[in-house]
Amino acid sequence: LKGQQASPFVLRARRSMDKNGMPWHLRYLGQPEIGDKNRHALVRNCVDIATSENLTDFLVEMGFRMDHEFVAKGHVFRKGIMKITVYKIFRILMPGNTESIEPLSLSYLVELNVVAPAGQDVVSDDMRNFAEQLKPLVHLEKIDPKRLM
């Protein structure tokens, strides 16, 4: 959906497929803050909401359309308020059928994520320190989402 500005309003919907009946999670991610280039992490507003099973029907009725769909298989680890996910991304061969998938790559994706109040720049230093510990195995970098578009 497009709001008052010309930029699109993007929502992400996800759910665990390990058990039937798991709730959907809806996430709004704001635009990345343009700030200090020395900051070690990308910073943006985030709103997470647990929802019911009919989330996808509701979003279609609101005027949203699906842009992409994928399956992520892996593990979630926690270190304090940091969430570390290590997973492989799989392409869905037939839309809506999560049984028919193929890996996009042989590599794993490692993601560091922290939800913190505004102005907590110390958290980005913690993320950088954790990334330094993984350096022999993993190259972590701050990704510019505009570069992916």
From TrEMBL:
UniProt-recorded name of the protein: Mediator of RNA polymerase II transcription subunit 18
Compartment(s) of residence: Nucleus
Keyword Signal annotated: no
Gene Ontology molecular function, alphabetical: transcription coregulator activity
Subunit (UniProt): Component of the Mediator complex.
Entry's transmembrane regions: none
Main location: nucleus
Keyword Transmembrane helix: no
GO terms for cellular component: core mediator complex; mediator complex
Organism: Dryobates pubescens (Downy woodpecker)
Role of this protein: Component of the Mediator complex, a coactivator involved in the regulated transcription of nearly all RNA polymerase II-dependent genes. Mediator functions as a bridge to convey information from gene-specific regulatory proteins to the basal RNA polymerase II transcription machinery. Mediator is recruited to promoters by direct interactions with regulatory proteins and serves as a scaffold for the assembly of a functional preinitiation complex with RNA polymerase II and the general transcription factors.
Family classification: Belongs to the Mediator complex subunit 18 family.
Keywords associated with the record: Activator, Nucleus, Transcription, Transcription regulation
GO terms for biological process, alphabetical: regulation of transcription by RNA polymerase II; termination of RNA polymerase II transcription
UniProt superkingdom: Eukaryota
